[in-house]
Design a protein that fits this description.
Jelly Rolls; Immunoglobulin-like; TIM Barrel
């Protein structure tokens, strides 16, 4: 049977049944509110001159590909931050009343920008006459290099006569020159004929915002691989005996990754106001790292910004943050090398290119780094060199490396960063600046500067950069500078579209966190009352949370915060996987408990916890041995684990004769025929002795081996509809096989099984076929002798169970067990070989059904025939079923393998919860492919066992953690 066929069949069993928003339009019924057809090109233009400089100019330019033929190109040359210093306006042509609905419709695109976002801004407003200038709407709109269509609905505030309401475009806002084009600006009045809710509203749809965007799965996989690690905990009592059934809770206390924010030192230090106290509380609640937005810049450090900023206050804030709150702090910024951002003491020397300036810069680095080194763990050494280069122009490009070299001499352990804007923002299209940034980094390093980190400002607005583009930019620098850390140093989303802000926070945090070289994301402020761009805050002025705060919280303190509970197995061990960081490990067993810290890094972590739990000191086998079948000359080993106090002495027996002692492992470097035997171990201490299960080491060539899976039985819940139970198997070999198939319900009650199916029915399907080829509801009495032949228990007076005798050709089959009356109950599917001389060769067994806990576990049974051990792959699938469209899957399957002993009792011999936490995950991957099973995603919580089984009867129990239920599947594969 080919692996390709088995994979296809396994997938079949698994899946058996149990962009962008549409373009907005302008509502009908609107009447022009102004007489000009386009406010931008035909409205009155007010240029203005301030300090001898023209604020803005307007040029009419042709436009193609848009619903308007001309646009106004606005060149803002000298903005002063006041939007009204230059404007375009048109007056209303009709009286309007309070509450009337108006829709503004316009188009905007960037031509050139020096803003951190790389985009342009225009202030759109409608206001009444002087002196009140009551505004009915007022907002900043932004755009990147592509045209953005804006729909801006609003209601009139107040009553205005014709000609007294102005529709205006403010051009003087901001502090940096910009050039943009704006056109198709019109205002439509609806009066009370339409409501505001009926109006279209622009919400920018960046690429990657879609719920099913492909980047999401890729990012999730990277986060799982690079942001998490395995932890392994062993719980013992004071005598060193493993504690079974201990509850182990692992809770992430502090992320290793820095989710930080910009802070005001004054608000940290001064706790005399309610707002400042709340400010500090919210910071600690939402973030785990910080920096100062302004306090560590050179001018305020030197006292240029007045008494609100001073070094004593800054140092006090640093001390509280790191010493008391234990929050890591990074420094921003040592050198911002332009006239407008240097302190007065340096500005005065720039016109003459005073030769003392380089040393004064070094002196400043010495001063501030030495003063803050007990608390600051990394620094933005150089800020925004693309637009801030006065010092480099005067003293040469190599001076940049000198700043890094000097910073390293003062703080040997700090990570030293360069920082700039417009690399990620502005739609990520400023390739010229991106190239220049990379060239600057290379230049500093070539000149000997110990630049270890690359900082990316992330100031976004209503047209944020697509998520795939953000990833490609980060990856470009990661590939070009393979030993540099990456950090988002200044992140915010400046928009009044709160859902857009929340979605972009969610997506940007996710894509950045998923990059393995990223070490932190610094939000540039969080409260509207203390934010450089209040709309970008995630907490409103009254401290209520915007959707953006919820998005941040759901990731940082939800999806990315490990808090899981597990239970130790018989060997006292438990394993899990969590996000890197500092943990509290709380272990309890009865009245005993212990809490220990655990530091989980990329390499993983291990911990032994001692509880004061009285346990039997007699020897126990905590891990049973397993045999194997190997070729002559092949290496092999047999091992076990024991516990007890004092430590048990282990004596091995070979064919019941003493063989070796004092070791837990038998090694056979090159097995021979003389080694082919049955081995067992006896563990002994003063409190008694215990024997392990006997296992065989078979030393045979492949042609000499006889071992097969020869039976299947599955017990679980079934009902009607999607809650049928499905048993699948693959018949190997050649020729047809005489097979008995049963679906039993009522008779199980005689064996103590509660809540059985009252009227089960079975249908049998060939793999790939949608219709059954055989079915039965009530079994025929003529099959009673066959039950006895194969060793199946009799059905006695149970006339409602189902049975079929079939001749089956090699291939894949499924048996559906359902309730004819629709009631849920427990049932069993059995498949037997009828011809004793021709064992039914089952190379794959699968069972799918509803799984719970207690009596609702899914139980698969099978028989290994022959004389020597057979290697098998046993899988308990839950989460992976969801990838095939199965709903309500078992989220956390637990798999336990039992050996059925001659007296009918069960012996637990193996168990697994998460396949990747097993002993050999790489081998599991290889064997999975070898047998043709569908692959499991890396780190999925599906369970797998890979082991050698002696000839005998086995049962596999699949249960859900914490009594949760869901659809699960048991699979057993015979490995060639």
């Amino acid at each position: 049977m080919s692996a390709a066929f088995i994979r296809k069949f396994s997938l079949l069993l698994a899946v058996l049944p149990i962009a962008f928003a549409s373009a907005q339009g302008i509502p009908s019924g609107g009447l022009p509110l102004v007489d000009v057809a386009d406010v931008a090109t035909l409205g009155s233009f007010y240029s203005n001159t301030i300090g001898g400089q023209v604020v803005a100019t307007r040029t009419i330019v042709p436009v193609s590909g848009q619903p308007f033929a001309q646009a106004a190109r606005i060149d803002v040359q000298a903005p002063n931050g006041d939007f009204w210093t230059s404007a375009i306006s048109a007056q209303s042509n009709r009286p309007v009343a309070d509450g009337d609905v108006v829709l503004l419709h316009l188009f905007l695109r960037a031509i050139a920008s020096q803003d951190e976002t790389g985009s342009v801004s225009c202030y759109v407003f409608a206001e009444g006459p002087a002196p009140e200038y009551v505004k009915s709407t007022a907002q900043t709109i932004t755009a990147g290099p592509e045209w953005i269509e804006y729909f801006i609905p609003f209601t009139i505030v107040g009553n205005h006569a014709a000609g007294s309401l102005g529709v205006k475009l403010g051009l003087g806002l901001g502090t940096r020159p910009q050039t943009f084009e704006i056109g198709g600006v019109r205002a439509l009045w609806y009066g009370t004929a339409r409501t505001l809710a009926e109006m279209p509203r622009t919400s920018f749809r960046y690429e990657g915002r879609e719920a099913d965007a492909p980047w999401r799965a890729e990012a999730a996989a990277r986060i799982e691989r690079h942001r998490k690690a395995d932890y392994r905990i062993r719980v013992v009592n004071t005598a060193g005996i493993p504690v079974e059934g201990a509850t182990v809770r692992a809770t992430l206390r502090r992320h290793a990754f820095e989710f930080g924010t910009a802070l005001d030192a004054a608000r940290i230090v001064d706790q005399s106001t309610a707002d400042n106290r709340t400010y500090r509380e919210k910071f600690l609640e939402l973030f785990n790292a910080g920096t100062f937005g302004n306090d560590l810049k050179w001018p305020p450090w030197e006292g240029n910004w007045g008494p609100a900023f001073n070094r004593n206050q800054t140092l006090a804030a640093l001390a509280w943050l790191t010493d008391e709150a234990r929050v890591p702090i990074r420094g921003h910024v040592l050198v911002w090398p332009s006239d407008r951002n240097l302190p007065n003491s340096i500005k005065a020397l720039l016109p003459s290119a005073d030769a003392s300036i380089p040393q004064r810069v070094r002196d400043h680095i010495t001063d501030i780094v030495d003063a803050t080194s007990p608390w600051v763990h990394d620094w933005d050494v150089l800020n925004e060199p693309y637009d801030n280069f006065d010092l480099m122009s005067l003293f040469g490009q190599s001076i940049m490396a000198d700043w890094f070299i000097h910073a390293r001499s003062r703080h040997p352990t700090a990570r030293l960063f360069i920082n700039d804007y417009g690399i990620l923002s502005g739609s990520g299209l400023n390739v010229t600046k991106q190239d220049a940034y990379a060239a600057t980094i290379r230049r500093i390093r070539d000149d000997g500067g110990p630049l270890g980190g690359i900082g990316f400002q992330g100031h976004f607005d209503t047209s944020p950069t697509s998520i795939p583009r953000v990833w490609s930019i980060l990856e470009r620098y990661a590939q070009e500078f393979t030993d540099a850390w990456l950090r988002v140093t200044e992140f915010d989303v400046d928009t009044d579209d709160e859902q857009l802000q929340a979605d972009y926070i969610r997506d940007f945090l996710t894509i950045a966190f998923s990059h393995p070289r990223m070490i932190g994301i610094q939000t540039w402020g969080f409260w509207e009352g203390a934010h450089w761009r209040p709309r970008a805050a995630i907490l409103r002025a009254d401290w209520s949370e915007k959707p953006g705060a919820l998005a941040h919280r759901e990731l940082v303190h939800g999806a990315w915060k490990t808090d899981e509970t597990r239970h130790t197995a018989i060997d006292g061990r438990v394993a899990g996987r969590g996000f890197h960081g500092e943990y509290d490990i709380v272990v309890t067993h009865g009245a005993s408990s212990a809490t220990l810290p655990l530091a989980l890094g990329a390499e993983g972590a291990a911990l032994e916890v001692v509880l004061d739990v009285p346990l039997d000191t007699a020897p126990r086998i905590t891990r049973q041995p397993f045999g194997a079948t190997v070729a002559p000359g092949q290496a092999a080993s047999i091992s076990l684990e024991t516990s007890g106090s004092p430590t048990p002495f282990v004596q091995w027996y070979k064919n019941d004769a003493p063989f070796a002692s004092g070791t837990d492992t038998l090694e056979f470097p090159a097995a021979s025929a003389a080694d082919d035997a049955v081995y067992r171990a006896v563990a002994t201490n003063a409190a008694g002795s215990v024997s392990s299960r006997p296992v065989r080491l078979g030393v045979l060539t492949p042609a000499e081996r006889i071992h097969k899976l020869v039976n299947i039985s599955t017990r679980g819940n079934a009902a009607g509809g999607d809650e049928i139970m499905i048993a699948g198997f693959v018949v190997g070999g050649t020729g047809t096989k005489d097979v008995l198939v049963r679906g039993v319900g009522p008779q199980l009650g005689a064996f103590g099984v509660p809540g059985t199916l009252t009227d089960p029915a079975i249908r049998v399907f060939r793999a790939g076929e949608g219709a059954s080829f055989a079915a039965d509801d009530d079994w025929s009495p003529v099959l009673a002798p066959v039950f006895d032949t194969v060793g199946a228990f009799p059905l006695d007076d149970d006339t409602k169970s189902a049975a079929l005798r079939l001749d089956l050709a090699p291939g894949g089959y499924t048996v559906h067990l359902a309730s004819t009356d629709g009631a849920r109950g427990r049932g069993i599917v059995e498949v037997y070989d009828v011809a004793a001389a021709a064992p039914l060769e089952l190379v794959n067994i699968s069972t799918r059904g509803l799984v719970g806990a207690g009596d609702d576990v899914l139980i698969g049974g099978f028989v290994v025939s022959g004389e020597t051990p057979r290697r098998v792959l046993v899988r308990g699938i839950g989460p992976e079923l969801a990838t095939f469209g199965v709903g309500g899957v078992l989220e956390d399957p637990h798999l336990v393998l039992y050996e059925v002993l001659p007296d009918g009792s069960n012996r637990r011999i193996a168990w697994n919860e998460d396949w990747f936490l097993g002993d050999s995950p790489a081998e599991v991957v290889a064997v999975t492919d070898q047998v043709g099973a569908f692959p499991l995603r890396d780190f999925s919580r599906d369970a797998v066992l890979l082991l050698w089984l002696e000839p005998g009867v086995y049962s596999v129990h699949l249960a859900g953690a914490d009594t949760r239920e869901g659809i699960g599947m048991i699979e057993m594969y015979s490995i060639p």
